[in-house]
Amino acid sequence: MRRILALCILCLSIAPATAQDAADTVAPEAAAEAGADSAFGSLSEPARAALATKAEGRPVLAEDWMVAAANPLAVEAGADVLRAGGSAADAMIAVQSVLGLVEPQSSGLGGGAFLVWYDAASGAVTTLDGRETAPLAATPTLFQDDAGEPLDFFDAVVGGRSVGTPGTPALLEAAHELWGTADWAGLFDPAIALAEDGFVVSPRLASLVAEDAERLGRFPATAEYFLPGGTPLAEGDTLTNPAYAETLRALATDGANAFYTGDIAQGVVETVRGAAGNPGLLSATDLAIYAVRERAPVCVEYRAHEVCGMGPPSSGALTVGQILGTLENFELAGGPDDVETWRLVGDASRLAFADRGRYMADSDFVPMPTAGLVDPAYLTERAGLIAGRDAALSEATPGTPDWDHAQAWGDDASIEFPSTSHISIVDSAGNALSMTTTIENGFGSRLMTPGGFLLNNELTDFSFATHEDGRPIANRVEPGKRPRSSMAPTIVLRDGAPVLVVGSPGGSRIIGYVAQAVINVVDFGMDAQAAVAAPHVLNRFGTMDLEAGTDAETLADPLGGLGFDTEVRELTSGLHVIAIGPEGLTGGADPRREGIALGE
Ligand code: GLY
């Protein structure tokens, strides 16, 4: 087994801005119709029923176990493991290995992930950091041109320069070592069978391949797989991936070392360093020394609940926690239709994102005021800035959380796009798993390895600029450092027991999606499906984003009247939620994507 490093970050509650203007110049991953069950080939009766339940806008109910993820084939694989008595960690391995095949644009072996675990036996919450690392040869100017100017985003993304050392294979193994009960090798069987026998290309995968055909076509191995004969894969095509099956067999037999050393690792390194036009720096040593880090969770008190998630290098739990911890000072009594609710959520989010841009990064490399950022007294002070107003804040600036470090960071200038996938699982022993998993941009770096998987572009989650007004930026590139993330896999507890397992893809909008889902359940009493389907209203330190085609559009005039800049746009979350209550498990799968919740 590979090493899991246990590092204690502060075990406290938590919450953070970006180059939003630049990010908004490119549309998010397109939403695709969930499609009929036939869109996924031959599904089991329970999976077909789950798709139908979702289409009706109802939650899925279960007593014993449940899994919710982004593709029915992956959910089925996890359900089979849970039905056979496997743990949530076992089921996650089956789900992730199938997602890497059927939803390759979002996550896979070539990427990284964060995992939050509630252990039923001990009541403990643990987090595993399987984030990618910057190559040891990387320098802070990795994403700058010869004149020191930041590269154009996609010039940085596409090719080898953006590829960090993948963490997902090591994370799968670490989770199994800690919490697995099923035979490791067997957990890859569903994905191996689908890779060899073929799976049906889903509507979403087909539409994203068509949109990205030019970039996918730049690299021969990638083009051969996604654009066979020069034509983009089409919905309903049957696709095989024998190379991926071989990779999974090696993992099944030899564990994660099969990925980080030997032929698979060599294939990764050669693909990155040989990328035409934009080679990268990843080396065999970077792979060989990769280690998952076990970290203490960041937990924030919210209306008698504890909202727990992944601390640095993710900004997810800290920023979600700052938003909720600020809102804790208000009632939100008007509910989801009240403009005052969204004024408070919007400005609480702007304040949190201001802190995120100033302070949050990989705390193994830069000092961070982690505890101070989610100190209730600090958040009450921040809440005071937005209390009793009848207009939006004219500006939202970083605060001064309690911190014993003299360094003043510059504000971050990273660009983040939505991709990624989220898995929520509860097993029959009562363990809960929340994992957000990614290769960053849709199709990552666009580099396909000989092992049949895409490589991430996670390093573009670093700030391209190194300094702001002469002050260093906390999230600048450094060798071995993990790029700041927005991923917010979350488990909400009440009286020490889990009541909600939640997370979403969506770049830095993940933070708003997750905070809103928690509010929908805790404040507004929505069921799991209603909570994920509700129209999105969020703010990342810029415009108030209102979900197109929903009732959220009606907020444009009133919020504009309060002084917010508003924008109506697609907001393609991929929330997967399991609520745990006295009556059992209730699951919700985001209607904006193809996933389902399934349980018994
Ligand atoms: N690359 C998505 C995230 O880590 O936030």
TrEMBL record:
PTM summary: Cleaved by autocatalysis into a large and a small subunit.
Top-level division of the source organism's lineage: Bacteria
Biological process, per Gene Ontology: glutathione biosynthetic process; glutathione catabolic process
Pathway: Sulfur metabolism; glutathione metabolism
Binding of L-glutamate, residues: 131, 461, 485-486, 507
GO terms, molecular function: glutathione hydrolase activity; leukotriene C4 gamma-glutamyl transferase activity
UniProt entry tagged with the keyword DNA repair: no
Signal peptide from the UniProt entry: 1-19
Classification via Pfam families: G_glu_transpept
EC assignment: 2.3.2.2, 3.4.19.13
Gene3D superfamilies noted in UniProt: 1.10.246.130, 3.60.20.40
Active site: 420 (nucleophile)
Entry keyword set: Acyltransferase, Glutathione biosynthesis, Hydrolase, Signal, Transferase, Zymogen
Enzymatic reactions: an N-terminal (5-L-glutamyl)-[peptide] + an alpha-amino acid = 5-L-glutamyl amino acid + an N-terminal L-alpha-aminoacyl-[peptide]; glutathione + H2O = L-cysteinylglycine + L-glutamate; an S-substituted glutathione + H2O = an S-substituted L-cysteinylglycine + L-glutamate
Keyword Hydrolase (UniProt): yes
Subunit description: This enzyme consists of two polypeptide chains, which are synthesized in precursor form from a single polypeptide.
Similarity field: Belongs to the gamma-glutamyltransferase family.
Protein name per Swiss-Prot or TrEMBL: Glutathione hydrolase proenzyme
Name of the gene: ggt
